[in-house]
Design brief:
Number of helices: 21
Distance between the termini: 88 Å
Largest sheet: 5 strands, mixed
Protein name: Glycosyltransferase RgtA/B/C/D-like domain-containing protein
Order of helices and strands: HHHHHHHHHHHHHHHEHEHHHEHHEE
Helix content: 55-70%
Transmembrane segments: 7-25, 93-113, 125-143, 149-166, 178-208, 220-241, 277-294, 306-325, 345-364, 385-402
Strand order of the largest sheet: 2-1-3-5-4
Structural class: mainly alpha
Number of strands: 5
Radius of gyration: 28 Å
Shape: elongated
Strand content: 5-15%
Keywords: Membrane, Transmembrane, Transmembrane helix
Length: 579
């Protein structure tokens, strides 16, 4: 006979599936969407490389490139990314669906983690939803990112941790402990931020052993010592490898720059503001404090004071390292980080908030976790319609309503921009043949031209590309002199661009002068100048002569967030006046 707990768990999984996949569906992320030029261009580049070099060859090259040129230590994420490209190829909808399923599994594993710790269904659901739903939900639809897979692996590690603590068999306890350690290490290999959560995992397991077996702190530490030593050694080894072996990341918006309290405090304010769990935490403290104080207003408080100390220490050990790590980039999008969606950096820091909220509701119970041995405890051991559960239900309902609307708004905006880009890319394919020349005017200060090159060449077989660089300060009245000054390998070295990007930019060729433009050319203006996006201003900047005006008069424009593309449409006019 199927227990009521398993039935409830099945309904919870169905609810989480409908919630997350439903958000992707209603927002339009599972319909006519295309690639984002940032990050998603890697899908097209890697797909072509896999076809030429094979899976293993591409994986080896990609690992070497990311470590040597980008100074990133994320091997598991890179393996996962190349595997995704190998399996899903260039089907963006399948990519989005897969990202959503990772979110579903992560939420469900977090729910099972809480259930294994003897929390009731409502508390466990609240924990999963508080952790997964919010600004950090960008991982549901953003394709190339390490936080999604890292958080899922971490949730599996937490589940095995809980089962190792509450297992009645020494053999299964050992198996669960090994799996907990393996998955914790795997999470640390998916993103650098998950390395910093390993000490918190050690403390969490010690605390769970302490409260489940009613052992002393010393006995709990000794019981957890082998696994703790492994995780701490791995944490230290990975940090040393990054510090002295790999070095500081080449991304200008990220990286550790030492203790500076101003950006750290700013990051803290952003963390609280962005995830709203700061308000939920305050509401939880307000709701549970009277119950906790009433429960512990006796000598029993002294015996249970450890229940208060460990959750606070665990919260600090999870959140503070993340604040230090992201003090430079922050958690809210800025002009420098808009394209990377820093809201995803809330993982795994947000886990500290949601877990503390969960523990506060546990402390408000009339009985201890240890006494909750009945697997149907939310139906028997703990009456569901208690004041605490009713208050938790309304807090969860309010949070779910507000966050669902907010997440759907963000997801819809993301899908709409992706849909516009998809139409933009396909319009290029429809109006050009593979052999047609496409002239791309771009701002040398960013990497969008390289990203566009990857997508057009590998995704749409448009390889006859002419790149015209610009720093946004010199008019293009004489392209030849500008190219001599601003383009070429020497410029790239001065700009300290990464070696792999230099190699790609070095293959980009410009025109000798504007007189080489043809009526049948297709022009792409790729946000060529800072603050200069209006097509009239752009055309005045690049095409001020009579000849160019004739060209543009016969062109049709298609705009997107990247800039706009201009196509030749009037085939009856073939002569272009010369200056």
């Amino acid at each position: 006979m199927i227990s009521s707990t398993k039935i409830i768990d099945s309904f919870v999984f169905l609810f989480l599936f409908c919630l997350i996949i439903g958000l992707l569906w209603t927002s339009g992320n599972l319909s006519d969407t295309g690639p984002r030029i940032v990050d998603d261009n890697q899908i097209y580049k890697l797909h072509t490389e896999i076809n030429h070099k094979g899976f293993v060859g591409t994986l080896n090259d990609h690992l070497d490139s990311r470590i040597e040129n980008y100074n990133r230590f994320v091997p598991l994420f890179l393996v996962h990314k190349v595997t995704e490209v190998h399996l899903f190829e260039k089907n963006i909808i399948i990519w989005r669906l897969y990202s959503g399923l990772i979110g579903v599994l992560t939420a469900f594993f977090l729910y099972l983690f809480a259930r294994t710790l003897k929390f009731n269904c409502l508390e466990s659901m609240g924990f999963a939803i508080f952790t997964m739903l919010g600004a950090q939900s960008v991982t549901f639809w953003k394709l190339i990112q390490g936080e999604g897979i890292g958080m899922m692996i971490l949730s599996v590690s937490l589940l095995f941790m809980a089962r190792s603590v509450y297992s009645n068999s020494n053999k299964t306890q050992l198996v669960y402990t090994v799996l907990h350690v393996v998955f914790a290490i795997a999470a640390s290999l998916s993103k650098e931020s998950f390395i910093l959560i390993l000490p918190a995992m050690v403390l969490c397991r010690i605390w769970l052993v302490n409260i489940s077996n009613q052992e002393s702190i010393k006995e709990s530490i000794l019981f957890c010592l082998p696994a703790s030593i492994i995780l701490i050694v791995v944490c230290i080894a990975e940090l040393i490898l990054i510090k002295y072996g790999i070095g500081k990341t080449t991304f200008g918006y990220a990286g550790w720059e030492g203790f500076n309290f101003t950006p750290i405090l700013l990051a803290l304010s952003q963390l609280i503001e962005l995830n709203d769990l700061g308000l939920v935490l305050l509401a939880t403290i307000f709701v549970t404090s009277p119950l906790i104080i009433t429960k512990n207003f006796s000598n029993a408080f002294k015996a249970q004071r450890i229940s208060f100390v460990f959750p606070i220490l665990l919260f600090v050990l999870i959140v503070v390292p993340q604040l230090l790590l992201y003090s430079k980039s922050g958690f809210i999008s800025s002009p420098k980080t808009l394209h990377v969606h820093p809201e995803r950096y809330l993982y795994p820091a947000i886990f500290g908030f949601s877990f503390l909220i969960l523990i506060l509701f546990r402390l408000a119970r009339p009985v201890h976790i240890k006494n909750s041995t009945n697997e149907d405890s939310e139906l028997n051991g703990f009456p569901f319609f208690t004041l605490k559960n009713i208050l938790l239900f309304f807090i969860l309902l309010a949070f779910l309503s507000a966050k669902t609307w907010g997440v759907n708004f963000r997801a819809t905006a993301y899908a709409e921009e992706s849909r516009m880009l998809n139409k933009w890319f396909h319009s290029i394919a429809e109006h050009t043949a593979p052999s047609d020349r496409i002239v791309i005017f771009y701002n040398q200060r960013n990497n969008d031209a390289i990203r566009l090159k990857f997508i057009l060449e590998n995704g749409f077989d448009r390889k006859n590309l002419i790149f015209m660089p610009n720093f946004g300060t010199v008019p293009f009245s004489d392209v030849k002199s500008v190219c001599e000054k601003l383009s070429g390998y020497e410029l790239l070295k001065k700009c300290r661009i990464r070696e792999d990007l230099r190699a790609h930019l070095h293959t980009m060729h410009g025109l000798e002068s504007m007189n080489e433009l043809k009526l049948t050319d297709t022009f792409i203006f790729l946000n060529v100048m800072p603050g200069l996006y209006h097509q009239t201003e752009v055309e005045k900047h690049f095409f001020s002569d009579k000849r160019s005006a004739t060209i543009l008069r016969n062109h049709k424009r298609h705009e997107s967030s990247l800039g706009y593309v201009s196509y030749y449409t009037n085939k009856s006019e073939t002569n272009i006046p010369q200056e």
